[in-house]
Amino acid sequence: LELVAATTAAAGALEQNPHLAELKETTLGSEIMALTRSTNALQDLAVRLRMMSIQGMFQRMKRVAFDVCRASGKRARIILKGAETQVDRGVVENLTGAMVHLIRNAVDHGIEPPAKRREASKPESGSITLQAGREGSEIFIAVSDDGKGLDLERLKQKAAERGLLNPEHSLSDEKAFELVFAEGLSTAQTVTGVSGRGVGMLAVKNAVESLRGRITLQSSPGEGLTVRLTMPLALASVEGLVVRVGGSYYIIPANSMRECFSAQPKDLSTVKGKGRMVKFRDALLPIIHLGKLFAIPFETEDPTAGVLVVTEHRKRFAALLVDEVISSQQVMVRPLDGELAKIDAVSGTASLGVLGLALVLEMSVILKDISSLRANDLSGANKRKDQVETVDIGSNQVGMVDFEVEHLENGKRIRSLFAINAFKAREFVPATSLTPLPASPKGFAGMLLLRDKTIPVVRLVELLGFTPAEDSENIIMICEFGSQAIGMLVSAINRVHYISWAEIKPPPQAHDLVKNSYIVGIILMHRETLFVLDFEHIVQDVLYLYKDFGQTLHGVERRKTGSRILLAEDSAIVRRKISTALQEAGMEVFEAANGLEAKEMIMALLAKVESEGGSIFDHLDLVLSDIEMPELDGYTLTSTIKTHPALMGLPVILQSSLTNETIVKRAKEVHANGVVGKHDPDELALQLKQYL
User: Fold this and answer.
1) SS (H, E, C) 127-185
2) Is residue 194 within 8 Å of 204, Cβ to Cβ?
3) Which helix (H) or strand (E) holds 63?
4) Contact indicator for 563, 622 with CB cutoff of 8 Å
5) Are strands 307-313 and 283-289 parallel, antiparallel or unpaired?
6) Whole-angstrom Cα distance, residue 528 to residue 541?
7) Region of residue 465 (left: phi > 0; alpha: psi -120 to 50; beta: else)
8) Selection from 104-113, 166-175, 393-402, 645-654 with the highest mean pLDDT
9) Which of 271, 301, 480, 498 could form a disulfide with 381 if both were Cys (CB 3.0 to 4.6 A apart)?
């Protein structure tokens, strides 16, 4: 791994060499970029080689639960979910002990004896669920039981007895949960070989945080407890922000970074007992000077002259003062050796090529004793440390990537600003990596070979209906939706803004650009307007452009010739693609641009039936409808059909970009005949075979 890290860093440094700019269009420039792509692929392969299934750990936990049940006289069954999930081997190596403790706790503290479960109208045998899964760039492991749950009042009482809590001060349930991790605190009546010493949950917390992870608890009295562990997908690598202080470089992990900004003199203040603070939205954040923290030379002590990086850990926020922000990178992390291993605030080192080594910051340590104040409540500065409430400025925040698209308007180059959910944007690569394809449909730029994946790339400027400007597409923004990745050609990437959902406003209908169906909102930022894109809508259109639904639907064996289908879909591209495929399969298609239009068409047919006689089935065999549509959504359209006496027998199939349990449940509630994924022609063909 260290050799791979060094090779990748060297290739990256070579590509960023300023002399390369002059050679960008030459063969040498292309070869260097190819080298960089190959080394990035090698790094990804090295990371994947560390991955292993969590099945083995889960199976071992079943044995642990069996042993504890036998010793305690309790009964429990183990339910495994997501056991096929691939995790970094470091997770298995470092969390096995923690998982053993959680299973013992679930049986010993959570599951009640059979007699008490009968009294509570519960099955005599309790259940413990082990679940694992992936969420973006993180994996989670959850241990849930259906026992008695956490006794928060007893927990507070024990904490007060040990002097950890002032009984006169009220404590929220969220804060009370954190008492579980206090050293020596246990709610067990007696100390046994299984539990009661009050050190287990602290050990679990330390083990998780050593993996750059976090732990959360959720409990309901009488219903059980869920302990959720969340960690980075790859422990050997970290994605973060490279910053410079003097001649030293540091990496702030991306999962701890919220925003970078430059402070104004009016934003600064000094609070007694807390030092210098900076106003950030509705909070005063303590300023941590990274140079002073590590006692190294630095260029500026003035927060208005440097860059402030807002960081967060467990709802504790601070602004790190650095001299310069270099870039965002994914790097291989090397463990610390010798004396460096004693530095708690550093979790490892990473090679930055020509820039040398960088220290990866451990934000859980740096922010351990940090508390923030509300900007309009400076009186809180005189509170005791254990009374100061941390300010949650991130729970309702969303990261938005701000980027530019240049186009022509009346012969002039125009720069339009757009934003997309930062969670969807995964990577940025130069446009020179694109492989154009001949005779491509409008909006399709070509294909990108990125590591071991072939990714379709679209011309966003054409999808938005603009006239492209020459030499304006410089960067490919790689975005993910579920398991599908697409690339979008854009002119420039500006920055990531972290804003509240309330700051995303409905677009003004008077603006010409808002007529585009891809625009779902606007953000007013620094006197400029950012148009928020509906990325899922774009993905739907892209996939329907390049996936041949026609061949799959040709296999539908119709029960009667010329089956008639009403297709309700607000995306013109998707509607045209499905309609063409259905027609090529021998069906007659009526198209509606939204749910309201589909409803009016059905009611018009019904009125015709009532005046001329017959039934609706003489004119229509099936309704195929999108779910998310303007005017009238698919659920409401289905409900209208299924509650009408003359229409209730008409089959309705709903289409959705995602087909999760919530969508399927809602579809059943309105009596839809089926739900299919928008990118699953095989399932659509099966549904059509069933009803036509």
Assistant:
1) EEEEEEEEECCEEEEEEEECCCCCCHHHHHHHHHHCCCCCCCCCCCHHHHHHHHHCCCC
2) no
3) helix 55-72
4) yes
5) unpaired
6) 28
7) left
8) 104-113
9) 271
Q: What's the pLDDT band for 198 if we cut at 50, 70, 90? A: very low
Asked if residue 289 lies in contact with residue 300, where contact means CB atoms within 8 angstroms, the answer is: no
Mean pLDDT value across the chain: 76
One-letter identity of residue 164: L
- Please give the span between the terminal C-alpha atoms of the chain, in angstroms, as a whole number: 57
Nearest in space to 132 (alpha carbons), one of 234, 227, 202, 239: 227
Structure confidence at residue 183 as a pLDDT band (50, 70, 90): low
Sort 387 into a burial class: Cβ within 10 Å, 0-12 / 13-18 / 19+: exposed
**In this structure, what are the phi and psi dihedrals at residue 635, rounded to the nearest 5 degrees?**
-65, -45
Residue-wise pLDDT for 424-454, tens only, equals 777 777 887 787 766 566 777 888 877 667 7
Asked if the model's pLDDT at residue 115 lies above 80, the reply is yes
| Cα-based distances in Å from 363 to 185, 213, 252, 253, 323 | 26, 11, 8, 8, 18
pLDDT for 653: 93
* Least confident range of 150-164, 256-270, 563-577, 595-609: 150-164
pLDDT digits 0-9 by tens, 301-348: 888 888 898 888 767 788 899 998 887 777 777 766 655 566 677 877
- Over 70: is that where the pLDDT of 192 sits? no
Residue 554: per-residue pLDDT: 43
Residue 569 burial by CB count (10 A; 0-12/13-18/19+): exposed, middle or buried? Answer: buried
Task: Fill in the DSSP letter of residue 507.
Answer: P
d(CA 422, CA 558): 45
What DSSP line would sit under 36-51, residue for residue? Answer: HHHHHHHHHHHHHHTE
Distance of alpha carbon 653 from alpha carbon 228, whole angstroms:
36
Q: How confident is the model at residue 396 (pLDDT cuts 50, 70, 90)?
A: very low
In contact, 532 and 478? CB cutoff 8 Å: no
Tell me which DSSP letter residue 603 carries: H
Question: Are the C-beta atoms of 601 and 608 separated by less than 8 Å?
Answer: no
Instruction: Enumerate long-range contacts of 556-560, CB under 8 Å, 24 or more apart.
Output: 556/585, 556/685, 556/688, 556/689, 556/692, 557/689, 558/585, 558/586, 558/587, 558/692, 559/692, 560/621, 560/692
Q: 3-class SS at 618?
A: helix
Residue 664's region, left for phi above 0, alpha for psi from -120 to 50, else beta, is alpha
Six-digit token pair at 209? 């945080």
Whether residue 387 is predicted with pLDDT greater than 60 in this model: the reply is no
Phi, psi of 666 (to 5 degrees): -65, -40
Q: Is the dihedral of CA 370, 374, 376, 378 positive or negative?
A: negative
Q: Which helix (H) or strand (E) holds 546?
A: helix 535-546
Q: Rounded CA gap, 608 and 604, in Å?
A: 6
CA distance 303 to 318: 13
Q: Each residue of 515-570: pLDDT tens digit? A: 456 777 888 876 788 888 877 677 766 665 554 444 444 444 433 446 889 999 88
Over 314-351, what HEC string results? CCEEEEEEECEEEEEEEEECECCCHHHHHCCCEEEEEE
